[in-house]
C-alpha cells in the first residue's frame, strides 16, 4: 500500500509539474501573440490634394487625426479593416518653417508608402524575442497626440531595425489603454491585399515569421510595397511605395 501511495504521489507530482509548465507556456504564448497589421503610412508633401483624391476614388471620408507638435506634421485617417487604417502623413499646413522630418516630407515629389506598422499588446516580450533571434530593435518610446475631438491618444513605439530591408520591416506599436484610432472611424474601405517585394525575400520572410506577421513577400529586382484598397461601388485604389522607411526622432 505504501509503495502504491508513493507511485500515485509521484505521478501527481509529474502532472502538477506538467500543468505548471503548460500554464507557463500558455502565458508566454499569450505574451508573444503574433503582431498584427496596424496601419499603412502614406507620406505626402501636401495632405489636402491627396486626401481629396482618395476620398473621391474610394467614396470614403478621411477623418482628421491631429497634429504631432514635436514633428510639425499632421495626419488624416481612413479605416481599411478591423483595427487597421491608412494614415496620410503630411507637413503641418500653414507652417513655413518646418522641423527636418516634416521638411523632408514637403520635399517629396509624390506620395510614397515608406513604412507600415504592426501592433502588439505588449512590446517588451516582442523586443526580447527579436533580440534573442539577433533581430535588433530600438528603445521603446512613448508618444502621444491630441485627436480632433481633443482626446489624448497615447502609444508606445519601437523600430525593428534592418539596414537591408528598411521600411519593409514594420515598426511596432502598443496602444495605451486599449484605445485604437479606428474606434472613432466609420469603416467604408477595405484593405484587399498588401504585398512586398525584395531581391532577397527569404531573409525578410524570416523576420516576418519572428514577428508573427502574415504578409506575402515576393522576389523583385528592387524593394517595394503594394497595397490594394477597395471602396464603395467596386472602386479600388492601388498604392505603390518604396518601403524605404523612416525613423522619427522626437
> Major sheet, described briefly?
8 strands, mixed
Q: Kindly state the number of beta strands.
A: 12
Strand order across the biggest sheet?
A: 2-3-4-1-5-8-7-6
Query: What is the N-to-C order of secondary-structure elements (H for helix, E for strand)?
Result: HEHEEEHEHEEEEHEEE
Radius of gyration based on Cα positions: 22 Å
Helices, by number, come to: 5
Let me know the average pLDDT.
86
Distance between the termini: 72 Å
SS class: alpha+beta
Morphology: globular
Secondary structure elements and pairings:
Blueprint: H1 2-31, E1 36-43, H2 47-58, E2 63-68, E3 73-81, E4 84-91, H3 100-106, E5 112-119, H4 123-132, E6 141-146, E7 152-158, E8 171-175, E9 190-198, H5 201-211, E10 217-219, E11 224-230, E12 236-241
Q: Would you kindly provide a written description of the structure presented here, covering whatever features stand out?
A:
Residues 1-31 have low confidence and may be disordered. The protein has helices spanning 2-31, 47-58, 100-106, 123-132, 201-211, and strands spanning 36-43, 63-68, 73-81, 84-91, 112-119, 141-146, 152-158, 171-175, 190-198, 217-219, 224-230, 236-241. It has 250 residues and is an alpha+beta fold. A hairpin with a 5-residue loop joins strand 6 and strand 7 (152-158).
